[in-house]
Amino acid sequence: MTTHPSRRALLRAGGTALLPGRATPAAAGAKLRPFGRHLAFGADPATQVTVSWQVPGPVTGSYLRFGTSPATLGPPVAAEVRPLESKLSWQRPEEHDFPPHAPATHTQYFLHVRLTGLTPDTEYHYVLGHAGYDPVTADRLGEVAAFRTAGAGGPFTFTAFGDQGVGYNAIAAGSRVADLAPAFHLALGDLSYAMHEPDGKPASEDFEYDARKWDSFFAQNDPVASGIPWMVSLGHREYEKVHGSTGNGGAKARFSMPDNAWSGSTGIYSWRYHNVGLLSLDSGEVCYRFPAKLDYTAGRQLAWIDAQLGKFRADPAVAFVVVCFNHSVYSTGDRYGAELGAQEKWAPLFDKHGVDLVLTGHNRLYERTDPIKAGKGTRKVPPGGAVAARTDGTTYVTAGGGDRLSTRSSRTRPRATWATRTAPPAPR
Ligand SMILES: [Fe+2]
Asked: 166 CA to middle of ligand 1, Å?
């Protein structure tokens, strides 16, 4: 005969723990597993790495523990919390309509820990936790991730693409990155596709934005970006008018790039990995087709590009200079084509400082130019050929095939010239 404790006895003993088949009530947040881990190098990748992640709901006491082996993790390092609230009225869901009882907002919780003073050329392991969620338990050993700081020099591999989005092709692209085991990945803008074709218009019934795409994006990339720094540039789809007048409020919450051009220079930064100096720019500032951010820094970015390229070229530790942003300077893609604003305003600086390589996305295809100087190709360079940027000019690559290439193709046609150009907007 089975007997059951009385309700009074249960209350005295602490409640449901005594009920057969019921688990001990979890502490608040105990089941909210951290997700969407993504890394970023600081300006000095030998000693600086930022670890960023999300939690699915509000928790307290988020932290990171790290060490040079999973068995020697140090004490918790408190995380910075950057909540980001998006009104559901802004959003057009792809999967289903919102039920009547749905909340009016979707709040995302982004956590960040900046690690400095790391040892160069060293592998670090880390785990993430919060109050009620201890990552150092036997059933969570799979949650230990690892990254490696830069060394003093030597050959290395990096990968780059833009226009990744979310989906099975995007997962495949990430897997290819993981298999190549690069020192870092350059994400050339148009990241999650939470935003469709932004042009600065206010929220309206045809305004397509779904903040939850970012949840999918970070969850999708977690297996790769948790171990390989994912250095992000902002594309035209990262212009989110809903998150601040500059459209950068969402990016500020989600990412912790070096952003060292000036205080608050979101997505605009420089760093050096071994003998390569890198710049990330916000090409929304020179985009005529979507002029929402046109000239939004009032010349500040342009002056910084000139100054920083000059610093790199004067630095004996820098042998190559690579510049990353979203809009294609030269492209035959017929979805967006080439961006005349970038040709007019930035290409002269790339000529002036002998930039070796410009990497962009935006058009969903792969193209590599011969070296270009003063707007003209200087000589034919076969695959694998060498280019001397100061004399030959800059090589421009469009690599916008992170996923959307196969789902919404640009359907490029061979053309004899770098033909498609976008005209500057009419004076406002
Ligand atoms: Fe774009």
From this structure: 15
